[in-house]
């Protein structure tokens, strides 16, 4: 009545077949001397960025005016070093891919690009955006408080609102996206997606005082443009209609595929707005469950027609 | 080919600007001598409460009748101390906010309120609800087993059903909500929201034998009232229609804004029921994708009209 | 101004009542000498399986052709031992349940079944599927790249796409399901559900080159059959219409309750397809928000009728 350890003798042969599969099936391994950004490091960076943005809520307790400068100064210094390293990894990896240099051979291949210096420059450029980001995020927190009768305080919003978490991470990722950092911005927004169920692409351009309530299931595509004071509920999709293909049969990447949402629009739960040429005019209200593939002028209320329901008695 | 550490010389000046922003942008920091509840502590408490409610599943293995009393007795003792501390923090913080005492100055300001004693009283009152909660949760587990043909055993439900996880956490949070504990109940339900994609406000009143299947995207608002034997599927919203504002232009907080769902109702995936005066009569069935903003009498089946679809051949 | 430790004197009596409730309310505890599979162990196994499938992305850095064999060989050896133990636990638990042997008394009760040997056999049979799984998963990664204009590289897909994570875990769980391992497959898919908001039952049969974009809110039921090259968006339900009950009033478990989706079908966001006899013909496109409870022939485009919306000016 026990497992038979002689049966383990077949495992080395299985290992050989698995390793052989790395040769044939090479799109889904990363056997190389140039490491990818580390998920663990990147998520540690996000955690510390939130400490800098919102001190006193989560990590270090008992911060006050007399000690916060030391704490934040130390975090900023450490973030500089760690971001330089991770951005450098991301830049080198993308370069290796685009030049089709076999990533595996790196270390022997000459390159004239100083990835470490570029990584450092962009890390500093990114950290320089933090004071401005705090201003934007305070407007978001206030929009959440003003927009949700269930919110007891802005502390509650910073502490546990998933919509605020998602927009915080997206605004950080968007700065990295504007600095043309590869892969890391998407790692950030997919991390937020896992935590919140809210999937906002790092490329989306989002105005001030943005509020997503509840949020699970929200999708906001790469080329969305959203003006100030927009409010969105759970399950809303701001997506693409269809993807044009180029003459080579490959998808065209980089075109505007997602809608434009003007100032002050409210979009209720599970509405879908699809297409790059769709504009929702300022002040409009899109009702729950509406699917729209064309523009609406300013100040329009769009709802589902009532008679689309059927009522009968239960048998 | 390296980062230039002289460039780090600009970081102290950046730190100064970040710290300066804490003065101007004061809604999103918590620089104060009175700590907020600790997320880490609160989630540790939730983990141990689940050990008490469902012993033998997750944490300590090999529990049996001869040792479970020691284990649970020790947990209850420790939960008392840790909950007293966290509830005390939550109560003091809310008090400081509501009296507009600058939280920062605490320690010098006199207060006549004994938050530690109140925290302890409510921690004990909360722990006293656990035997009754086990009874309610066993009925929920049975409802899940009876309602899902894919469930192989109630163990599977306790072990890994997200709907059972969400209702467990909400029932714990609801007891704290009834004891008028600030912020902590919402921390609990937002933690469950992150795990499960199910967002149930701590204030929602939910009857016995409640089952949410799949669950991602479900939203149940603060002032919902749900009777016994209700079954809900993924993507269902029990939400608000619109938020009345008071004479000061601020949202009115605390009114009934979310629907009432009577005994035995089934609500299929992605249906939305919106409004505080909406009552779904007992025994009714609300079909997938239906959006309702008015009441339906008992034993009504509501579905989407068939002809709202268009069929054509693919080009 | 402190908590009163004399009040703790009531805690032992409370503990007694909680322990007493384990006798009466016995569906939601596992007080027994035969341990259930350990969540922590099972999730560690999943993490290491992903290292074997996709080396170099997440865990060990700097893997290359000269060292990957040692690393993977060691992982496979360790996975054998740990999976044998966990599968053995799952098999013994299910056996105890089905024979209604009181699990509590195990160790004294004789059984002729050698669970350790069966656990080992199935662990090895499972590990033997890994080379084939790598082939299938590479096709999935390629389908994601080909289907999403926002994807910058297949590395990005392996690294952070939730749809790829969900199908990876489901394909692992499905192999365990085919080997008739109880409870563990569902632990895996519910873990993926928590991470991604995508809920695919281990029993679902899914063809090659499958891609779920965004994914939050997707539900794919136990008896779904999905052919090759199918693409699904967030919020899609492939679910059941209603559950037949047997003459004993209990649900009939194991019947085909979920739809069949043929080759090359695209299903846009929040569409629901419900029922075990529903077949979506090859090449069909199901539009956003459509609810279908009947079959459609090959090459059909199904969309929501336009006139179901009402437009008015905001007051």
Automatic annotation (TrEMBL), chains A, B, C:
GO molecular function list: serine O-acetyltransferase activity
The keyword Amino-acid biosynthesis is annotated on this UniProt entry: yes
Matching InterPro entries: LbH_SAT, Ser_AcTrfase_N_sf, Serine_acetyltransferase, Trimer_LpxA-like_sf
Q: In the Enzyme Commission scheme, what number(s) does this protein have?
A: 2.3.1.30
Please give the biological process terms from Gene Ontology that the record holds: amino acid biosynthetic process
UniProt entry keywords in alphabetical sequence: Acyltransferase, Amino-acid biosynthesis, Transferase
Main enzyme class: transferase
Q: Could you name the domain of life of the organism this protein comes from? A: Bacteria
Q: Which residues form the signal peptide?
A: none
NCBIfam families per the record? EPS_EpsC
Q: Show the PANTHER family listed in the entry.
A: SERINE ACETYLTRANSFERASE
Q: Output this protein's name.
A: Serine acetyltransferase
